[in-house]
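Data availability (excerpt). The following record was deposited with the supplementary files.
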Amino acid sequence: MAPWAKRRWVEKKSGNNPTDRAKLGSKRSLLVDAKGIPLSVRADGANRHDVKLARATIENLMVKKPRATCKRKQHLCLDAGYVGDEVRELAKEFGFTLHVRPRGEEKKLLKRNARFKARRWVVERTHSWMNRFRGVLIRWCKKPEHFIAMLHLTCAIITWRSTGLLG
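Predicted structure:
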């Protein structure tokens, strides 16, 4: 494609996906509660690192976070992509107890202790729920504002379904 024919919508909230032959793509960062109900969602280009979206995702929290105490801690469970000083400082700033575990470590703990509660799969399940909406799975929206609105609508529907008001 000629440089003068570059599409205007491509330059925001999309980027070359490093794992998919450099196709343009989007990445969504999601913060959920213990039951998998979305509390915050952010979108950016697929070429952004997860750590760069962590602050924006936590600051975009839609509900008031309860105050962390010694007895009732606020846990922030992340995967190994979030390892680093920046995320540790961010967790301390917002009062979270940080849990960063590689994928295999949680599986080993679950095998050793049957009462161990796996935490990371909750976010993966919510991403799966979001992928049931075709407008999120295949990004039809060209403008980033429309895609973010679609993400918010998806989160609202997931939250509404979890209330049990469907009958």
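Summary of structural features: The domain at 8-160 is CATH 3.30.420 (Nucleotidyltransferase; domain 5).
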